[in-house]
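Example 3.2
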Amino acid sequence: MTTELPRLNRDVAPDRRAPVRIVHLGLGAFHRSHQAWFTQHAGDAGEWGIASFTGRRPDAAEVLAAQDGLFTVVERSDSGDTFEVVGSIVEAVDGANVDRLVELVAAPQTAVVTLTITEAAYGFAADDVTLLRAGEKPTTPLGRLVLGLAARRDSDAGSLAVVSCDNLSDNGNVARRAVADLARGVDAGLADWIDTSVSFVSTSVDRITPRTTPEDVALVSERCRYRDAAPVVAEPFRNWVLSGDFPAGRPRWEDAGAVFVDHIEPYENRKLWLLNGAHSILAYAGQLRGHTTVAEALADPVCLQAVEEFWDEASRHLDGDGLGIPEYRAALLDRFGNSRIAHHLAQIATDASTKLRMRAIPVLRAEREAGRSGEAAARMIAVWASFVGANPGLQDPQSDAVAEANNLAGGERIASLLALLDAELALEPAIVKLVEDLSAGFERAEVPARATASGTAA
């Protein structure tokens, strides 16, 4: 008779619950492998519990709540797997529970609000202004945060820090502007209070965290002898660079390897252009050439060459002491080539019109201003254009506009797609022609024989 394994909870893995002092919006795998992991490993972790709220769906909160917030981080490399129970999330809450979010944001002991709400969520939400003015509950993460900050002001709970952990250049100021615009639309006094009482911290975050599979869940049961319905798989590498003030305090994240700097822009650009830019190239070029994961696409010489050439362009515009660009590039090749991290290209490919605006456009503009063609940056846009032509249903915040562009042909179609990224560049015939020519080249590309993990043709 087989004995059923116990469910992971604080009876199976005792872990003292820390008081909630961090509120997180965007409970997902990356938050758990990154910010929650760093908080677990802070020297004063016992003082800093996280209440994490889901975004669109309640599922993650329901599963984690049944496990007392505990989950397993599986660090996966070519040399094997390691397993660690993380207990820094002490409340997992459905994001629709706005009352609990407001209560916690307004609580005096809350010192930090962190965000992983995706790049697309920082746009202005006029509907939330209407709802907030009417005294109703907003529906977006930032609308809910503004409601919480209003309650904090009214309760005189003092200052706090908002920390954006999304892949946006200058993400702290992007969050500041988005929150201020919402608040100003509701109450100018609230906007003024936020301006003087809330610090917005910019960050660069980095840890490859692919989607968890049923096989991963089964592996944790087999190796750890408990049932964890919500493990996360991540590479061993992790990086967190932060810049800004924490007026009400923060965990000692530096004990876990976080770095605090005065000027974050060089680190943001290094990550956005080299890591995320390469991911975008691989996501579209790789799928066009028949690959499904980052490791598979990187093993394709055509995809690898596209990445290397883009890195050459981007590296010319990365200035700053201590960035170590050659070492960073070499490390990325090792990380991307980790064959046991099944980082699926389809997972990376979504929301392209937001992502490429930050990954391709700055490099393309910088290269053109320097008198060069910017061909490698243009190729990133070109492979996206080819991919959405063949896959019109790709998730994107401007999906209707992408569909309209796909009804056009030739240079007119390319110009319409390019306008979604940069309206000025879309008016330059030379750039439109360059992207069109590069796009046609990938549309004609032959799919190579796929390599297996052993390196033989499959």
